[in-house]
Every structure is written in structure tokens, then in C-alpha cells.
Design a protein that fits this description.
The structure is a single chain. The protein has 14 helices and 15 strands. The strands form three sheets. Strands 1, 2, 3, 4, 5, 6, 13, 14 and 15 form a nine-stranded mixed β-sheet that branches. The chain has three domains: 229 residues, TruD, catalytic domain (Pseudouridine synthase, 2-Layer Sandwich); 82 residues, Hypothetical Protein Yqey, Chain: A, domain1; 116 residues, Pseudouridine synthase.
Amino acid sequence: MRVPKLEKMLGIEVYATKASGIGGKIKVFPEDFIVEEILVDGSRADVSVKEAPLVVGEGRYLVCWLIKRNWDNFLVLREIARKLRLSLKNIHIAGIKDAKALTAQHISIENAEIEQVSKVKIEDVKLIPVKYSNRRVSAFHLYGNHFKITIRNIYHSISEIVRRMETIKGELNSFGGIPNFFGHQRFGTVRPITHLVGRELVRGNFENAVMIYLAKPSPYEHPKAMETRKHLLEARDYEKALESFPRHLKYELLMLEHLVKHPNDYIGAFKRLPLKLRRLFTQAYQSYVFNKALSERIKRGIGLNEPQIGDYVIYVDEKGLPTQHARKVNTQNLKEIKEAVKNGKMRIAIPLIGYKQSTSNGVQGEIENEILTEENIKPENFRLKFMREASAKGELRPALTPLTDFSYKQPCKDQANPTKRMIELSFTLQRGAYATIMLREIMKPTNIIKAGF
């Protein structure tokens, strides 16, 4: 099955399933991509809530549901902080949600009162107080996300859509879940450069990193943005770029403002960006290396539920979530670990390479070291000497993630395009897993931009 070129650029080089996809397009409307966050205590943020629940508890943090439509996570949090006259550091989230979507998630706001929060008015945003707590919301509290996704513009007949859906569903069951690739939004789909910036940061090439972020054009972005990037790449005129860059490119404008005053301070330019975004660059590069390693394992026909000598395996907690408690497979424990993986008590893991995380051994280790050699990096390079806050320690990530509560409704006529069909899917993924990785198996898009990814 042929994988789109753009996906290969992200290290996603294979499919788990061999069946033909149903095609179609996602995110025609924000309501076609609904995400509701689930915490480990079972609480689920609700996009359809009509009125605020009774606020309970006590503590320094006010936990709210943030329901947003068509908003970038970083930008909406910044706007909330501005409205509340608080530092962005006072607001905490469990996980980043899709921008072009209707999403509900938990956030905690330090030292905020219900009366203040109830006065916050932002278009296409609801902020609903839920409870007070002495603990801020963090990734530790996140179980995963429930998705309700509508795929439109499908040209196959209803019976053919159902046939393909059932075949793919069966193949995913046999595969044991979905490959735990980092999805397209980790890198940017329209302009997939986040990992390229991270690569230059890890290599210590800060000027290159700045110029990739500001000036590397993409044929998929708006022509005005593409043109201004080209001009900056050719002229290196930060002042002119600051005047001509589209106003919606807020992060680029922040960097340009700094470079106008300090033309050679590339590290300082990066430090104008939110800390979470700075860290995202190195994390995206880790993700790219991980995707390459996972792709190569699948290409070589090594099962993601079949431990090999040299593999890392991680334990699963009582909620079914992967932990960082790990072992390495050797000849003495191979039989025991195979049984634990089979019973769902352990999962095979691949390293997110970092300055504290070494490669696997055995065949998987060979794969990882080949990629590092090709990239001309070492694990210790992820300790960024001049921007320590964006350094990456590394960790282990499951090679496979479970797919639960998967169902779909009978395909029907697409109201937005009456000559085509649509289908609504529903499923739950654990934290760290991407819905787009599930959807690419279902759709097998030839052009991921036109498919809405």
C-alpha cells in the first residue's frame, strides 16, 4: 500500500492494514471532529454541556472544562490568561487538543475565582468551572480521549464502504491495535517543519533553526505567507519581514520583533516563544526518530506484540495505561515477558531518544542506531547547552496502542455533498495516541492535505 510522500517526511512509512481505504475527507466542519478528554478518575469533559455543574471541593486551583471550536490550544490559553489578567504559568492542561475541531478538555487556573471566570467572553470558547482542587491538572491525570469523527465526501457505495470498514476492523483486531506513531499535527501538516527545527536545535545550529521556522515556505500554506517567507529567506531583512508577515502568524511576529532589535540573537528569538512551544521542537524531532524506528520494525515484519531479545518492555498500570517501569528482554526472561505481553500486563516499547534514554539492543537497537547514524546525532545531543529548558531526557513509548469502543454508524448521504457518502466513527484512544493515525488506516488518503489531515 503506497504511503503519501508527506507522511514519509514525518517518518510514517507504512500501514498496519493492507485493505483498501474508504477515502473521503475529515474536518470539513469543526463539528466533524469532536474530542472529549477523559481523566484517569473517569471524568469526561462534555462538548454538549448546556449549563455548568455545581462547583465542589476546595483548593488553590479552579478546575474548568474548556470547550473550544476552531482554536489553537496555545493561543486560547494565552487569551484566557489575558482576560483574567494572569500569567500563562497560572494555567495548566492535561493534553493539547486539535485546533480545527470541537474539543472539550480540563484546565486548572491557579488563584482564580468563579466570578472572574464566568465573566470571560471569547468567541467560540466556553469556560465552565467544575471544581476546586489542591492539585493542578497535568498529563499525569489524563487517561485519553474519546473521538466522534465524521468522514465526508466518500465516493464509494454504502455497501462497499461497509465491506472495507469490516475488513480494516478485522485487520486492526489481528494487528492488536494501531501502531503508536506520532500523528501529523505533532509536526504540522500544512507546514511540517517542527521536527526540522528540532533537528537543527539538537545539532546546535540555532541560526538554521530560526530560518527554517520563519522562512521555509510550504506549497500547502496560504500564498501570502509562502511569499513572505521566500522573501525573508532571500533577503534576510527582518524589519521588512515584520511589516509584511501576515498578522495571524503570531509566533513568527514575536521572533521577528526580537531579531529586528537583536539580529544575531537566535537563541533570544526562540525564547520569545512560549516554553511549551520551544520544547515541542525537540520533542517533535524525537517523535520523527521514533516514527522512523517504528516504521522500520513493521517493514521488517517484526510484530509489535512479539517481544524480541534486546527489546524494551514497559509495565501497564491498573488503568491499562503504560508506565515508565521497564525491563529489557534477554534469553532468561523472554518466555516470561512473552506471556506478560500476551496477557496485556506489558507492552513492547521503543525509545524516544534523549540524553538519558539509550537505544534498545538486538535487532531493534540496530534499527535505532542506523537511524541515529543517518541523522548524525547521539542521545547526548538532546541536552541543549544554550537552551536547557528545551532539552529532552527521553523516555519509552509503546510501539502499539489499544483501540477501544470502536464503532461506526451506517454510511449515508453526505448532506454537504449530496452525490457522495459520509460515515460517523466513534472510538477511544489512550493518552499520547493520535486519532489521525487511526483515520489513515481507515481512509488510506492519497493526499493528506486534501483529505483534511
